[in-house]
Amino acid sequence: MKHRIIFATGNEGKMKEIRMILADLGMEILSMKEAKVRLEIEENGSTFGENAEIKAQAVWNITKDIVLADDSGLAVDYLNGEPGVYSARYMEGDSYEVKNRTIIERLKDAKEEERTARFVCAIAAVLPDGSVLHTEECVEGLIAHEPAGTNGFGYDPIFYLPEYGKTSAQIPLEKKNEISHRGKALEAMKLKLKEVLQGENQ
Predict the structure, then answer these.
(1) Which residues, 6 or more positions from 51, have their beta carbon under 8 angstroms from its beta carbon?
(2) What is the chain's Cα-based Rg?
(3) Where are the alpha helices (DSSP H) in 64-166?
(4) How far is it, in rounded angstroms, from Cα 171 to Cα 173?
């Protein structure tokens, strides 16, 4: 049975990453826009996993394809896990440049060891039969003292990875896909999807 994957996002940067990782599934991978799905989805879950499933389910209700959605965010320990599930809506209306500067400013009194943070990504997949798969991964790092790099979007310029001596936005895309929270969660989801598809073909 020939399937296609719709990823519930309109973010082109994200779609580039997704296509690179899921390419070997050999399926057409479409954004919501490319699938001509126009929806305003209210993400009112209390966890990343719940939000991802809400988005995937909303698109699946219309298309009945394999629908994937992710919800990801930055959790800063010094800020009690903020912005967390509200990462996309944090300081709504402001640019990420302003948001990133604000987070750095809020950590001005933090000791070096208190600058710990993680990027979390949850992915939900709703399959044509309505069943749901979940994966969740994270990557640990620190909040940088200054934004740096252009290879990324969102909070990437302030998320510093000590083992690479760089922010997430300074790491080449191929490498970032290997180590990023979304990259790892997508790889885990790809394995689950392969199992399902192999089962269908037996």
Answers:
(1) 43, 44, 45, 71, 85, 122
(2) 17
(3) 96-106
(4) 6
Among 173, 185, 176, 174, smallest CA distance to 138 is for 185
Residue 84 forms beta bridges with which residues? none
As annotated, the active-site residues are: 71
The single-letter DSSP state of residue 119 is E
Token pair in block for residue 168: 């997430």
Residue 152 and residue 158 in contact, taking contact as beta carbons nearer than 8 Å: no
- The residue to which tokens 């800063």 are assigned: 76
What are the helix and strand counts (H, E) for the chain? Answer: 5, 8
Q: How far apart are CA 19 and CA 13, in angstroms?
A: 10
| Cα 170-174-180 angle, rounded to 5 deg | 70
Prediction pTM value: 0.87
Written as six digits, the tokens of 2 are 């020939």
Lookup: tokens for 43: 């993400």
Strand partners, 76: 82, 117
Q: Which two tokens stand for residue 137?
A: 């991964």
DSSP code of 89?
A: T
> What pLDDT, in 10s, does the model give residues 103-142?
999 999 999 999 999 999 999 999 999 999 999 999 999 9
